[in-house]
Design goal:
Helix content is 45%, strand content 14%. It has a seven-stranded parallel β-sheet with strand order 3-2-1-4-5-6-7, sandwiched between helices. Helix 1 crosses helix 9, helix 3 packs parallel to helix 4 and helix 4 packs parallel to helix 6. The two termini are 31 Å apart.
Length: 250
C-alpha cells in the first residue's frame, strides 16, 4: 500500500489501542492518514499505541474518551472542526457484559448498549458535520457475526451489533448524496489477546465452526477496513463486509 494514498486525510478510530482497533489504526497511518485513536480503560495499551504511532511521525494522537459519555464525546469533538475535522471514522469501541438474559442486570444491558450503539451515534453526529461540509467522508462500523446470527448468553452484545448493522444501512441512505459512504465491517473470530485467554478446548470448538479452519488475524481485518476507505470503494455503501473465514454463511 502506498504510504501516501490517504495523505491529508484525518481518521478517528475509537477503541483503537489493542486488537482489531490497533491494527486498523496502524494500517490507516501506514497509508498516510493522520490518525487519532481513543481509549477508555487501559493506560498501558494507550502508551504502547502512542509509541507505535509516533514511530511514523508526530501527526498522530492518542486521546482518552469514553464514547458512552455524551459529555466526554462533546468535549473531544469540540475543537475538531474546520481543518481539524475527521474525514474517516471507524467506530470500533465495544464492550461485553455477557450473561443469560434472565440473569442480566439493567446495568449490564445499559453498559453494552451505551458503548456499542449509543457511542457510535454520539460520535457520528459531530463527525458528519465536517464530512458533509467537505463533501467527503468514510465511515466504517465494526460489527460482529453475533449481530447477524445471534449468540446465546450474549443477547446485549448481539442486539448492539445488530443495531449497528441497521444504523449503517439507514445512515448510508441518508448521506450518500454528500459523498459519504457508510459500511459495516464484520470480523469473525480473530486471534487477539482476548481469544488467546480462552481455554484450548473452547478455541478448538470455535475453530471447528469456521470453514477456513483457522482464526483470523487482526491485520486481515485491518486490510478490509482500509479498502473500505480508499477511493476504490467509493461506490460501496450500506454494505456489511464479512471477514470471517466463512463463519456467517456456514
Amino acid at each position: 500500500m502506498s504510504p501516501t494514498v490517504l495523505a491529508g486525510r484525518r481518521a478517528l478510530v475509537t477503541g483503537g489501542t489493542r486488537g482489531i482497533g490497533r491494527a486498523i489504526a496502524l494500517a490507516l497511518a501506514a497509508a498516510g492518514a493522520e490518525v487519532t485513536v481513543t481509549w477508555t480503560h487501559t493506560a498501558g495499551d494507550a502508551e504502547r499505541m502512542r509509541a507505535e504511532l509516533a514511530a511514523g511521525g508526530d501527526r498522530h494522537e492518542v486521546s482518552r474518551c469514553d464514547v458512552a459519555s455524551r459529555e466526554a464525546v462533546a468535549d473531544f469533538f469540540r475543537s475538531r472542526t474546520g481543518d481539524r475535522a475527521f474525514e474517516i471514522l471507524v467506530n470500533n469501541a465495544a464492550v461485553t457484559r455477557d450473561g443469560h438474559l434472565m440473569m442480566l442486570s439493567d446495568d449490564a444491558w445499559n453498559d453494552v448498549l451505551a458503548t456499542n450503539l449509543t457511542g457510535p451515534f454520539l460520535c457520528l453526529r459531530p463527525a458528519l458535520r465536517g464530512m458533509i461540509a467537505r463533501g467527503f467522508g468514510r465511515i466504517v462500523n465494526v460489527v460482529s457475526p453475533a449481530g447477524i446470527m445471534g449468540k446465546a448468553g450474549a443477547a446485549s452484545y448481539a442486539a448492539s451489533k445488530g443495531g449497528m448493522i441497521a444504523l449503517t444501512r439507514s445512515l448510508a441512505a441518508e448521506v450518500a448524496g454528500f459523498g459519504i459512504t457508510v459500511n459495516a465491517l464484520c470480523p469473525g473470530v480473530v486471534d487477539t489477546a482476548m481469544t488467546a485467554g480462552i481455554a484450548k478446548e473452547a478455541r478448538d470448538a470455535m475453530t471447528a465452526r469456521i470453514p477456513a479452519g483457522r482464526l483470523g488475524r487482526p491485520e486481515e481485518i485491518a486490510h478490509a477496513a482500509l479498502f473500505l476507505v480508499l477511493p476504490h470503494a467509493a461506490y460501496i455503501t450500506g454494505a456489511t463486509l464479512a471477514v470471517d473465514g466463512g463463519l456467517v454463511t456456514a
